[in-house]
Each structure stands twice: as structure tokens, then as C-alpha cells.
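Project outcomes to date are best conveyed with an example. Our students and postdoctoral researchers have been running inverse folding experiments weekly, and each run begins with a structure described purely in C-alpha cells. The record below, which covers 233 residues, was selected by the lab manager from last quarter's runs and is presented without edits.
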């Protein structure tokens, strides 16, 4: 299997890349820093997904690897709101939403033309929430979740497959909230992603009970408790 993992120098993307390589797959990674991986079957493209040339980088990759089987979009940032610096919120949309949309257009578009493949996007259970602490994070996740789930429904019964993966708290640098209920390791998150590779799902949520917590928090959103649910970096 040939896979492209975007946002894999760290965290869930790195753990997922390692898990794919352990299965013997050919993997290419994309992120601003190189991934700490020196394994046969791995190569890396150093690229910021918010730069204009990102689209060309994806097209170049697809020209070389038209037989791609799997793409996993893991790139993400979460910025705490600073009312004196809304540019960080804009940057959050650029990575979590617009670059994910461009990746979907180019890579899923290629897969649709070939009736083949599986596109997995990493979103978050935070897609349910309204957050005064990190409004761009929750809004970008809401936007990308609804987009991927709508596209996934449009692809129902045919190939390629599209899966939207929604995590709660995963122990990476992004998740440094004061309370991290039901925290998962990055390796456990990667195992879950590999389960989705094996069995595509329109929406795959882990842990599911966090959905109830997020909904409850949204009900009391106008309360300070909401900060407990939002990753930051
Ligand atoms: N950790 C959690 O609790 C949690 C919960 C729910 C959902 N998620 C989602 O899971 C995904 C992965 O998160 P994580 O926890 O693994 O975060 P992470 O450890 O901070 O890793 C984020 C990855 O995204 C890459 N990235 C960030 N900005 C980029 C850019 N402009 N261009 C290219 N690559 C970029 C980073 O690489 P470079 O810095 O080298 O570019 C890094 O490899 C995100 O979408 C996140 O929202 C995480």
C-alpha cells in the first residue's frame, strides 16, 4: 500500500506513519520539519501546507505516485485566543480548514478520478463546541468535519472512501489543557487510525463518551468550563 501522511513530524501523524511503516507500507510524509524516521519505504517532503506552492507539491507527488492508496491529513494547530492577535486565529483556519480543503480537492479529487483509495482526515470532538478560549480551533474543526462528512455521504457506496476521525484528548504537544479527561497516547490514537484504514467509516469518534462531555460543555458553554476541552499549542 502507498500512503501520504500530511502533518507527521510529531504527534498522531508521526505515530501513524510509524505504524504504517511497521505494516510494510510505502509512506511519504509532509510537514515543515522532517519526521524523525529513517526507515526503508519512507521519504519526506518538507513543506508548509499554508504556502501557495503546497498545491503544486501535492500534484507533483501524485504525478510520481498516481497509484496512491491512502492519504491521512493530520496537520493541525490550536491557538489560544488573544484578542490583540487575531492573526493566530486566521493561521489556525489556514492549517486546519483551508489546507485540509485543498488537500481534499487535490488528493481526493485524484482518487475519485481513479475510483480508488481512502482519504482519512483528523478532526476533533471539539467540532461540536463553541469556545471563547480557542474559537478558530473549534470552528475550523466544525467546518472540516461537516465538509468531510458531507463529501463522505456523497461517496456512499462507491470508491474512494472518506473517513472523518474525531479524537478527544491525545497526549501530544497540542493537548496541554489543564484537565485531559480520557487521555489517549499517540500510539493508541495511531492504532485507532489504522483500524479506520482497515474499516473505513464516515465518522469515527474516540473516545465516544467525550462526545457527551463536549455536548454537555456546549450547553454550559457560556461557562468557563469550556477551556477544559480545547487543545492548545
Ligand atoms: N492532541 C489532541 O488532543 C487532539 C485531539 C483531537 C484532535 N486532534 C487533531 O489531530 C491532528 C494532529 O494533532 P497532534 O496532537 O498530533 O498535534 P501535534 O503533535 O502538534 O502535530 C501536528 C503536526 O502538524 C504539522 N503541522 C502543523 N502546522 C503545519 C503546517 N503549517 N504545515 C505542515 N505541517 C504542519 C506539524 O509539523 P511541523 O510543525 O513540522 O510542520 C506536526 O507534525 C490535528 O488535526 C489535531 O487537531 C488532536
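After processing, the design step wrote out the following sequence:
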Amino acid at each position: 500500500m502507498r500512503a501520504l501522511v500530511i502533518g507527521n513530524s510529531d504527534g498522531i501523524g508521526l505515530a501513524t506513519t510509524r505504524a504504517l511503516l511497521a505494516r510494510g507500507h510505502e509512506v511519504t510524509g509532509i510537514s515543515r520539519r522532517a519526521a524523525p524516521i529513517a526507515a526503508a519505504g519512507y521519504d519526506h517532503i518538507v513543506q508548509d501546507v499554508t504556502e501557495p506552492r503546497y498545491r503544486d507539491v501535492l500534484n507533483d507527488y501524485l504525478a510520481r505516485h498516481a497509484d496512491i492508496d491512502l492519504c491521512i491529513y493530520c496537520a493541525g494547530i490550536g491557538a489560544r485566543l488573544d484578542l490583540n492577535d487575531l492573526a493566530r486565529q486566521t493561521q489556525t483556519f489556514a492549517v486546519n480548514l483551508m489546507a485540509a480543503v485543498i488537500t481534499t480537492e487535490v488528493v481526493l479529487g485524484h482518487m475519485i478520478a481513479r475510483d480508488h483509495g481512502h482519504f482519512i482526515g483528523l478532526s476533533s470532538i471539539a467540532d461540536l463546541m463553541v469556545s471563547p478560549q480557542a474559537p478558530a480551533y473549534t470552528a475550523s474543526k466544525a467546518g472540516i468535519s461537516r465538509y468531510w462528512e458531507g463529501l463522505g455521504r456523497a461517496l456512499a457506496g462507491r470508491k474512494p472512501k472518506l473517513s472523518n476521525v474525531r479524537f478527544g484528548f491525545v497526549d501530544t504537544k497540542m493537548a496541554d489543557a489543564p484537565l485531559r479527561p480520557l487521555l489517549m497516547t499517540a500510539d493508541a490514537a495511531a492504532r485507532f487510525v489504522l483500524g479506520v484504514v482497515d474499516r473505513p467509516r464516515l465518522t469515527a469518534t474516540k473516545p465516544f463518551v467525550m462526545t457527551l462531555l463536549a455536548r454537555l460543555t456546549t450547553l454550559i458553554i457560556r461557562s468557563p468550563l469550556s477551556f477544559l476541552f480545547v487543545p492548545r499549542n
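The longest helix spans residues 87-114. The chain has one domain: 2-229. The training component of this project remains on track.
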